[in-house]
Request: fold
Amino acid sequence: MSCALPANSGIFDGSGSDAMPGGFEGSGSAAMAGEKGASVSAATRATVRRTASAQVRPLPLAKLASRGGITGPALRQRRAYRKACPVRPGPPRSATPASPTSARVRFGLQRLLMTPTTYASLLKDLQRLEKRVTEAHVALSRSSPRLAGRLGARHTVSETGGRVEDFVVLCARKSAVQFLLRTVYVRVLEDLGALDPPRIRGDRGFATFKDVAPGLGVRAYLKFVFADLSRDFPGLFTAGPDEVGELPPEDLCREVWDLWHHPNRDGVTYDWAAPEAAAASETAAEWRFDSRFLGDLYQDLDAEVRKRYALLQTPDFVERYILDHTLTPALAEFGLEPESVARQGGGVERQTIRVLDPTCGSGHFLIGAFRRLAAAFEATGLSARAACERALDGVWGCDLNPHAVDIARFRLLLEVIARTGDTDAAWLGDLSERLHLTVMDSLVPWEKGGASGEQADLFDQSGAKDRLSKYATAEERAANAAFLSAEGAGGFHVVVGNPPYITPKDVRKRDDYRAFWPDSAAGKYAMSAPFVERFFSLGVPGAYVGQITANSFMKREFGKRLVERALPRVELTRVVDTSGAYIPGHGTPTVILFGQNRTSPRSGTIWAVLGKRGEPKRPAVAAQGLVWSAIA
Reply:
């Protein structure tokens, strides 16, 4: 049912784990108004603080050695390995890229879909290893005073509300997940032909390593692989110094190695490469590509990590629906290249329309936006390669979970490979460094720290500016503020996302969010409430905003201030009750909110799509459920 309401009514780290030495911090319906009007608007999700810059440039070998990362014989061994087993250059940058239907790339990408049986088997194997690696990291933290002191100091900064012991276990869990997923990334890249010679596939790489470093084992080799890839893919794989506890013990590294080299207990071999003959037998009509399983793995590997950081991928059909009502009209209103900037040396350059997901997780909305923008640029006559480069300029995302951001970065590169068929490591490395993805808590108003005038006075009077200074160094705060202004461009034309629905667990953060967002974070609020306000604040004037969020703010007392104070300052255009729809993974009743960042609404009407009843039974295909079909 639809009715109108009056407006304003109611990938790598050289260490293989940044968690053990440095600590971790988190990522990444509506019973709507009746005819008489009530609550409108929505919300989205939480966040803890940023730990480090998302794009740490890899150090040159000599400088890395001088900082303790690779020293003496190990440095010579690395140089000898790279000489004996060099990275083969891709085609010249001016060369015509491979066709997306080329056998090797095309079939390899198709295999990324994975059958449910193979995915379940891989998940089971990785969960078994994750448990053992976690236990090894926890044991190490208890036996190493240096590591224990480091984690204790990190806990003091980031987790004032929990026990140190719980924080250490959480770090160990995330470290284990990160390590295992990085081996997945390597295997996918080398099977697609982006890593030549292979590093983990087959025995050539390890055999060469043993020739130049005969006294070292699999653990040392995997550490080298991760550090080496951080050089070849800057911005995707972050290099770091050699630190105690960064990788699990040799025996566990050997088990992980065996996972990728031998059939498992059920006889399943994980291999994304295929013979040319098999690839040739696949027709173009049968081919499709989806990197979603990478986000699924991260979400499913550890239930405790998933719960702690509200990890949840947005279903494809929800993402498409939200982009249909935000990016599509934004392109019609702003155009594909809405702004011009002066070039160095003269002339002007058109800038791509900008889409932001401030709670991007593993990047599902970013993937959807990239596909649409790339197709739009190709329609203007650009080559697939040039279209991908321009589309990536328009895709922006941030999350407080660094490992979710890693996955989003990796998935975007896989999308580029899928669209162009190009596995040139040099080009992909350049792209990975240019991606607009970073690690930050987007609910912290970084940009207000440098505000002036009346806005700055109000911010100072609330004490929020002093609170802001606790969350990062001055340099990090400036970098975050620049990112949220699209590097000085003033904001984003589209803001979309699926923020977490949890309540803030950290007492200090809970109070700080109240100071930052006094018009939406009230009482015993859920993160969804301040995120509703935050999404609108990140857009340029007239920006299109869409989010799926918990509908609790419309039913409970904490949402009253949001409805009465924050929402009247923007143009809410559509409220869609999705509480009766079956949305996989979403046990919390939800609502989808659409609007524009306008202080003077162009229309006096808010359209509400109100649910009458839920699904009579769980639909076999969620997108074809009776309720969702009525909505979409």
User: Anything to note?
Assistant: The chain has a mean pLDDT of 76. The CA atoms of residues 354 and 394 lie 4 Å apart.
